Amino acid sequence: MLEAISSTAISAGQAASRATETQAVAPSAPSAIQSTDDLGFESVMKQVTTDAIGTLKAGEAASISAMQGKESTRKVVEALMSAEQAMQTAVAVRDKVVQAYQEVVRMSI
Q: What ranges does the record give for the region Disordered, renumbered to this chain (predicted)?
């Protein structure tokens, strides 16, 4: 499951790079957004996907610990609910990135 998310993260990163390239071509792109690398779209996407992957790994680790009898049921449920929410967020962001990419591709030049 994590490999699929990692590949999604890579795809989202590629889409983000293409979106960044598209912004660089746009003549009236705001300079304040591109002034720092830390606040760029690509870095935000990397941070979001990294956080989602970390949450999913924590959910899996909690599940494994519960099977070994080391974790309470409450903590496992909380970790799995967080993992589910992170997964739903990642899928929603992926869908929006793909939708935006398709709109850019359909633009007439």
A: 1-36
Q: Mean pLDDT over all residues of the chain?
A: 77
d(CA 60, CA 28): 45
Cβ contact 71:81 at 8 Å: no
- Residue 91 tokens, joined: 């899928």
CA neighbor of 42 nearest in space, from 91, 84, 90, 9: 9
Task: Write down the pTM of the prediction.
Answer: 0.57
| 9 half-sphere exposure, CB direction, 13 A CA radius | 20
Region of 72 please: left (phi>0), alpha (psi -120 to 50) or beta: beta
Backbone angles phi, psi at 72, to 5 degrees: -75, 155
Distance linking the first and last C-alpha atoms of the chain: 39
Q: CB-based contacts of 1: which residues, under 8 Å, 6+ apart?
A: 56, 60
